[in-house]
Amino acid sequence: MAAALVLRTWSRAAGQLICVRYFQTCGNVHVLKPKYVCFFGYPPFKYSHPYQWLKTTAALQGQIVQFKLSDIGEGIREVTVKEWYVKEGDTVSQFDSICEVQSDKASVTITSRYDGVIKKLYYNLDDTAYVGKPLVDIETEALKDSEEDVVETPAVSHDEHTHQEIKGQKTLATPAVRRLAMENNIKLSEVIGSGKDGRILKEDILNYLEKQTGAILPPSPKAEIMPPPPKPKDRTIPIPISKPPVFIGKDRTEPVKGFHKAMVKTMSAALKIPHFGYCDEVDLTELVKLREELKPIAFARGIKLSFMPFFLKAASLGLLQFPILNASVDENCQNITYKASHNIGIAMDTEQGLIVPNVKNVQIRSIFEIATELNRLQKLGSAGQLSTNDLIGGTFTLSNIGSIGGTYAKPVILPPEVAIGALGTIKALPRFNEKGEVCKAQIMNVEKGERKPVLLNVYYAPRTMLNSVCLSLHNSTSQKQLKVATRFSDISPDRPGHL
Amino acid sequence: MLIPFSMKNCFQLLCNLKVPAAGFKNTVKSGLILQSISNNVYHNLAVEDWIHDHMNLEGKPVLFLWRNSPTVVIGRHQNPWQECNLNLMREEGVKLARRRSGGGTVYHDMGNINLTFFTTKKKYDRMENLKLVVRALKAVHPHLDVQATERFDLLVDGQFKISGTASKIGRNAAYHHCTLLCGTDRTFLSSLLKSPYQGIRSNATASTPALVKNLMEKDPTLTCEVVINAVATEYATSHQIDNHIHLINPTDETVFPGINSKAIELQTWEWIYGKTPKFSVDTSFTVLHEQSHVEIKVFIDVKNGRIEVCNIEAPDHWLPLEICDQLNSSLIGSKFSPIEMTVLTSILHRTHPGDDELHSKWNILCEKIKGIM
């Protein structure tokens, strides 16, 4: 049985999607495989292939131009170099940012005047650079008859467009488009621009490429781009040619950094724990109704009431019956500690990633108190202000994959705990009631993972534990008990034996 | 004169200003005065970016007026740990922003006005702008002793700073912005702009502390509204344009296409903290252990806001060396931020279960380290 478990941590602040996949096949555990996608690039700098660049200028060698620091204004003679946006060997286009310098409270972005490859940087960070002295050396493309660069464009327009003089004709294209054309050996004069004023856009280059590739492939009677209208007698099915799409995106490798690294280590340790999973569905129709009734009452007291407080309380009731599931084991599984408090953790998605704060002592809290505490943790979690105390001391965890829309999940136990529950989304599904009629029911899938060696001799416990959790959720008697509990919460929150 | 502005008019006006190289509409006046309806520093900074990147300022300079809810704004190349009290800011809900212009750290609240003068690079002249502001203030309060200094500050009575300056110069355009203190909470300002962090070594631009004063302390009638109108009037007179302040909404994509992504970038951790020039922290703290004090030394190098080198040295009898090494290696690559420290601590707890004494020592150590982040 191969079960794929996806644990996604969102790092919204940095715009990074970090996707960590765990594969569990037949009880064996594969090492995780992190995969990193996308990044909000700053500076917006694209690297192209220098070798391709040089290929197009096979005949003539490029010339090295000294790009001097131009006059900044106000009689400024010297500046401090604060940040380099390029390094030696990078390809730059005209108007790309080269570096940031500072002079007397003015921050100046120096942009390139040429297209080419950076050959030398004349200054290090925090050095003083002088106006009129060389800043960088750029190896420009040699001037060819068919493609000419206008090296000095008068600074009139704010537009990022450069003009190419080609046999008296002006071709408008952005530096990115020109680079794309250069990389694919396309002469801009041969491309028809579809943009404003005959501007050549990226789509025009891609269309041009498609046409070119089509011309090279030998035409065959069956190979047609557009399938002909189907003739009733003719049974031949035309086979369309799929042209390889031109894609210039590049892979990006990054080291695993920060607490994600530590998290990865913990999860690897966690996966070494033999897992025993059990899954069932729970009918929550009554709970949904109850929550609808209680929501406005909670709101009047400034509490947002989700389903989680009910699940936490139900889990605690189940843990009272089966305290082994609230235990902790040491590293080598030699000692087991039955924890007295039910500190139930809830997986929370924050800017820092997946964090699991816990609600302390759920066993003595009422639904409203649990809801208040959850609100507090959620607020702190999104502000990045959770304290260490909120994050340590957990004894059992509930993972709410339903909140992001999933229905099935195989949760991973967080050591030193021995069990974890995963709750799916509540969905309206048709079910049979006692009379055998089809009715609408609110169904949720619950999965529980447990540590195998600990519970070998109580293998029946998971089922009964789950049943007790489920029972306490949709048993009408329990509903009334929960209802009573919430009403009494203000009067006597800490009465022993109180729900 | 504040005239409410219809969206269509504003859009058309800005379209006219976004002049292509070819044409030129003679109906456009040679200048524009804008005021933001938002108090969100990130949205307002994004407006500056947008105007700087997209508007053709040839012959048409722009004045932008804005105010922010409590925020500390640091310069492009500054170090927030060196410049302000980040712990206090987190407690009080004061935001932190990094602007794109150079210069030092300032505190904004609703009692402070920000003025941005947009011109072409050729017309960039800070002293001219400051003289304009001085004229505006003197028009409202003729006997006010206010003057611009060589450092482009505005001083009142020859010693109290009421305005600081910074600017950004690009390829074709430039902007010069300055603050103007009308009625800011001065006590709060000085407590926020005082860094409690010790042992920071850095080449980041340092701020020059100064004695400040509010204009309203000199003359209670110099409220923000009065000063805004005075500056706008003076700008209109100097540039021979209508004295109309156009209200703009910095989140409106139809008027400013692409502005929201600029605002988002300004709020990323990578921009605010990650752009801090490389620095190192060399400090120590003491911890109470069995009636004696244990000294723990901390050497951390931070690059791009992340810990590059980490050496936390604790005596072996208090914390075993290999545990210390584990902590050090876990911290490398982490953001220099308290929440990352908190999460790391909780993860370390999980990898060493059951050892309560170790856990409590770790907690103490981590709380101390968080105190320097």
Number of helices of chain A: 10
CATH homologous superfamily classification of the largest domain in chain B: Bira Bifunctional Protein, Domain 2
Q: Look up the CATH topology of the largest domain in chain A.
A: Chloramphenicol Acetyltransferase
Q: Write out the CATH superfamily name of the largest domain in chain A.
A: Chloramphenicol acetyltransferase-like domain
The main pleated sheet of chain B reads as: 6 strands, mixed
Strand order of the largest sheet of chain B: 10-11-6-2-1-13
CATH names the topology of the largest domain in chain B as BirA Bifunctional Protein, domain 2
Report the β-strand fraction of chain B as a percent range: 15-25%
Distance between the termini of chain B: 46 Å
Number of strands of chain A: 24
Poorly predicted runs of chain A: 1-60, 144-169, 215-232, 453-499
The SS-based structural class of chain B is alpha+beta
CATH class of the largest domain in chain B: Alpha Beta
Got a strand count of chain B? 16
Structural class of chain A: alpha+beta
Shape of chain B: elongated
Beta content of chain A:
25-35%
**What is the helix content of chain A?**
10-25%
Structure described in brief:
The complex is a heterodimer of chains A (499) and B (373). Chain A has 499 residues and is of the alpha+beta class. Chain A has helices at residues 50-56, 175-183, 202-216, 259-271, 285-300, 308-321, 367-383, 388-391, 461-474, 476-488; strands at 2-11, 16-25, 28-29, 33-37, 63-68, 78-84, 91-92, 97-103, 106-111, 116-121, 128-130, 134-140, 162-166, 169-173, 275-283, 327-329, 336-338, 344-346, 348-350, 353-355, 358-359, 396-400, 419-432, 438-451.
Descriptive overview:
The complex is a heterodimer of chains A (499) and B (373). With 499 residues, chain A is α+β, with helices and mostly antiparallel strands. Chain A folds into four domains: 27-61, no CATH class; 64-140, OB fold (Dihydrolipoamide Acetyltransferase, E2P), CATH 2.40.50; 168-228, Dihydrolipoamide Transferase; 258-485, Chloramphenicol acetyltransferase-like domain (Chloramphenicol Acetyltransferase, 2-Layer Sandwich). Chain A is built from ten helices and 24 strands. In chain A, the strands form seven sheets. Chain A has a six-stranded mixed sheet. In chain A, strands 1, 2, 3 and 4 form a four-stranded antiparallel sheet that branches. Chain A has a four-stranded antiparallel sheet with strand order 5-12-10-7, with no helix packed on it. In chain A, strand 8 and strand 9 form a beta hairpin. In chain B, the strands form four sheets. In chain B, strands 10-11-6-2-1-13 form a six-stranded mixed sheet, sandwiched between helices. A four-stranded antiparallel sheet of chain B has the order 12-14-15-16, covered by helices on one side. The longest helix of chain B has 16 residues, at 224-239. Chain B starts with 6 loop residues before the first helix and ends with a helix. At the A-B interface, strand 8, strand 9 and helix 4 of A face strand 10, helix 10, helix 12 and helix 13 of B.
